[in-house]
């Protein structure tokens, strides 16, 4: 492959795809519980990479989320993982 194309095919993972690595059958922390709940939420915007879209969705539909600070913490981890 031509080096000019390097990076063109590198896709940013959606937040949903990133969060799924935290799923656990017996969640021991809030992010794992959040991941489990998002997995069960069939309306969650699975292809989104947009903070505002996800935040708005969770504010209106994320009854399973005890605090938006859990989402904010997961979002920071997402940003760190996508900038590596």
Question: Secondary structure elements and their pairing?
Answer:
Layout: H1 15-19, H2 30-40, H3 51-61, H4 68-82
Number of extended strands: 0
Low-confidence stretches: none
Number of helices: 4
CATH architecture: Orthogonal Bundle
Terminus-to-terminus distance: 22 Å
Nearest-integer average pLDDT: 90
What structural category characterises the helix and strand content?
A: mainly alpha
CATH homologous superfamily?
Answer: YozE SAM-like
- Which H/E pattern describes the elements? HHHH
Determine the CATH topology: DNA polymerase, domain 1
CATH top level is Mainly Alpha
The coarse silhouette is globular
Rg from Cα: 14 Å
Q: Count structural domains.
A: 1
User: Which percent range fits the helix content?
Assistant: 40-55%
How much beta, percentage-wise? under 5%
Query: Largest sheet, described in full?
Result: none
Pfam families: YozE_SAM_like
InterPro entries: UPF0346, YozE_SAM-like, YozE_SAM-like_sf
Family: Belongs to the UPF0346 family.
Domain YozE SAM-like: 14-79
Account of the protein in words:
The structure is a single chain. With 84 residues, this protein is mostly helical. It contains four helices and no strands. This is UPF0346 protein BN000_03790. It comes from Neobacillus massiliamazoniensis. Belongs to the UPF0346 family. It holds the Pfam family YozE_SAM_like.
In short:
With 84 residues, the protein is mainly alpha-helical. It is built from four helices and no strands.
């Amino acid at each position: 492959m031509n080096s000019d194309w390097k990076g063109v095919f590198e896709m940013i993972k959606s937040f949903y795809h990133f969060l799924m690595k935290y799923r656990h059958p017996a969640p021991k922390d809030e992010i794992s519980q959040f991941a489990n709940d998002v997995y069960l939420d069939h309306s969650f915007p699975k292809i989104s990479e947009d903070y505002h879209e996800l935040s708005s969705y969770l504010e209106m539909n994320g009854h399973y989320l005890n605090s938006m600070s859990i989402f904010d913490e997961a979002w920071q981890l997402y940003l760190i993982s996508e900038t590596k």
